[in-house]
């Protein structure tokens, strides 16, 4: 796994500091060393990309940062400081509170990230549970964000379900949801792999614009 350098001009401490991270998966056929001695920084307000072949541990690293690892994962050493706090030692409730607040994620497959039996509207309102404001204010923010990510006729689309969107539109909805919470760090795990090349470019540009606007960092 190779990390593309990101140039930091700020002398302030990085938003995310990963040091010496080792992670194994327990399997019936023995332990798989998925991460070995991973260290990287994500400076505040910057984009850091991780490049590596399939199976090199990119998703595992993303899920480790999010605290969304499967049961058979075992972090054997290392540290993950986020806003100066050790994520690996944080109580479960405090960790969960970070999700959808300071930390949010866009997944490779937008279908799995959305609830199929609830409208986009109710999911976009619920994700703002850390924010102030009435339901109608949250609805207005959801509309505005759908507009920003390029969903045509968002007023009429708000009441739709995820299966009523195309793959590209669905990923836009996920981006809108992830950014509605104005996270400090957005973790994006191959958010465009499921899309065709033209769409891929559009989505990357969109993410870059929104990142500048919101001032968040992205771990790509
Ligand atoms: N839940 C799991 N149990 C066992 N092995 C896993 C699990 N998840 C991932 N792995 C293994 O960990 C390695 C890294 O996988 P992954 O993080 O998905 O790579 P990438 O996202 O870079 O393609 C692979 O060898 C994969 O088979
Ligand atoms: Mg992956």
Overall description:
The protein is α/β, with parallel strands linked by helices and 220 residues long. It has two domains: 1-98, Rossmann fold (3-Layer(aba) Sandwich); 107-220, Rossmann fold (3-Layer(aba) Sandwich), CATH 3.40.50.300. It has helices at 58-66, 92-98, 110-113, 120-126, 135-148, 154-157, 167-180, 197-214, and strands spanning 2-3, 16-27, 30-42, 47-48, 50-51, 73-82, 85-86, 103-106, 185-188, 217-219. Strands 3-2-6-7 form a four-stranded antiparallel β-sheet, covered by helices on one side. The chain has a four-stranded parallel β-sheet with strand order 4-10-9-8, sandwiched between helices. It is globular. Bound molecules: adenosine-5'-diphosphate (ADP) and magnesium ion. Adenosine-5'-diphosphate binds at residues 25, 27, 32, 34, 52, 54-60, 70, 72.
Mean pLDDT score: 92
Overall 3D shape: globular
User: How many distinct helices?
Assistant: 8
CATH superfamily of the largest domain: P-loop containing nucleotide triphosphate hydrolases
The domain tally reads 2
Radius of gyration: 18 Å
Distance between the termini: 13 Å
Bound molecules: adenosine-5'-diphosphate, magnesium ion
Identify low-pLDDT runs. Answer: none
* CATH class assignment of the largest domain: Alpha Beta
Could you name the CATH topology of the largest domain? Rossmann fold
- Can you name the CATH architecture of the largest domain? 3-Layer(aba) Sandwich
């Amino acid at each position: 796994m190779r990390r593309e350098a990101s140039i930091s001009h700020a002398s302030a401490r990085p938003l995310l500091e990963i040091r010496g991270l080792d992670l194994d998966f327990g399997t019936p056929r023995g332990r798989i060393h998925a991460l070995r001695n991973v260290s990287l920084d994500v400076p505040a307000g910057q984009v850091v990309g991780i490049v590596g072949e399939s199976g090199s541990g990119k998703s595992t690293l993303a899920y480790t940062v999010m605290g969304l690892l499967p049961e058979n994962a075992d972090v054997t050493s290392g540290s993950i400081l986020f806003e100066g706090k050790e994520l690996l030692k944080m109580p479960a409730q405090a960790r969960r509170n970070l999700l959808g607040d300071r930390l949010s994620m866009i997944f490779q497959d937008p279908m799995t990230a959305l609830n199929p039996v609830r409208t986009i509207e109710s999911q976009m309102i619920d994700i703002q549970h850390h924010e102030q404001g009435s339901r109608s204010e949250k609805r207005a923010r959801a509309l505005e964000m759908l507009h920003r990510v390029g969903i045509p006729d968002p007023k009429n689309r708000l009441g739709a379900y995820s299966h009523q969107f195309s793959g590209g539109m669905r990923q836009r909805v996920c981006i809108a949801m992830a950014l509605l919470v104005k996270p400090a760090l957005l973790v994006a795990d191959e958010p465009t792999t499921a899309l065709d090349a033209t769409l891929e470019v559009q989505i990357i540009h969109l993410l870059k614009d929104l990142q500048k606007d919101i001032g968040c960092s992205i771990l790509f």
